[in-house]
Amino acid sequence: MARHGKSGTKRPKADAPVAAPRPARGATAPAIEDTMFFPRLRRHARWMFVFLALVFAVGFVAFGVGAGGTGIGDLFRGRGGSSGAPSLSSARSATEKRPNDAQAWRDYSTALQTDGRTDEAIRALRRYVALKPRDADGLRELAGLYLAQAAEKQSAAQRLQFQAVYSGAAQSYPGLVASDGRPIIEDRIGAALNAQASTAINEAVGEARTAYADAVSTYRRITALQPNDPNVQLELAQAAQQAGDARTAIGAYEKFLELAPDDPSAAIVKQQLAQLRQQAAGGGASGSGG
Question: What is the distance between the alpha carbons of residues 60 and 47, in angstroms, rounded to a whole number?
């Protein structure tokens, strides 16, 4: 989706450019679990799990996931030479020597992002924002990191669900039940695995929702600093949709149209507004107005 033009040069940010508005979600918090297809697949195509297991195993080995070693992905990331950014160790050392140096914390966050450590990068960038609370660019980068974190947690929840099914989820035995409906054969090990996996999955899903909400909160801070920037309103609306906050998304989309009525994105935004308003009228909007 095209974005409203902006002037000036900005510091490169870790988050990707804002994409076209996503299909509208419900007015309540997003049902992240609904995106997980493994339970449905398990019922209809059990053979597919063997294929998926091989794909996951090869991918994990090739890219060094969970092995504590060096994979192909590490070799690829190691190529391309230095980007001129400080190393992780030197950036960390700078924050220890100058804890009140905002730029040192931002450099440290950048180094952590380069190393793929999103959670730690967020903590470092939050320190930068605390020292530079009116830096819209820093806030924008932080919001993007929250969205990246949400995507990582959602992906982790899906991976955990797959692992639970593949590693021995409890099996049911149709017909092998007593007269009172209780199963004659109980898969206690499988049931224990299910319970353990369910806890881990719910935790990952909760963390994803929290990250989406943090992104919305951060974009709100940017709109307070730049109330007439239509791009910020568009980013807030999209983040709010991902968080399931229909009311905030509606308000931000409306503000975007007010600021940029002739923008090429206006037609798509109007479609999103119509869907969100219909959902809000049908089930009630969540979140607070922006």
Answer: 21
Helices and strands in the chain, H and E counts: 11, 0
Residue 193, C-beta contacts closer than 8 angstroms, at least 6 positions apart:
164, 167, 168, 169, 170
Tens digit of pLDDT for each residue in 17-75? 444 455 444 444 445 545 444 444 444 444 444 444 444 444 544 444 444 444 444 43
The angle, 0 to 180 degrees and rounded to 10, between the axes of the packed helices 266-283 and 246-259 is 150
Residue 143: in which H helix or E strand, if any?
A: helix 136-168
CA distances 121 to 76, 80, 116, 201, 238, Å, are 21, 22, 9, 23, 23
Name the token pair of 280.
């809000």
pTM (predicted TM-score): 0.64
d(CA 261, CA 258): 6
From first CA to last CA, the distance across the chain in angstroms is 23
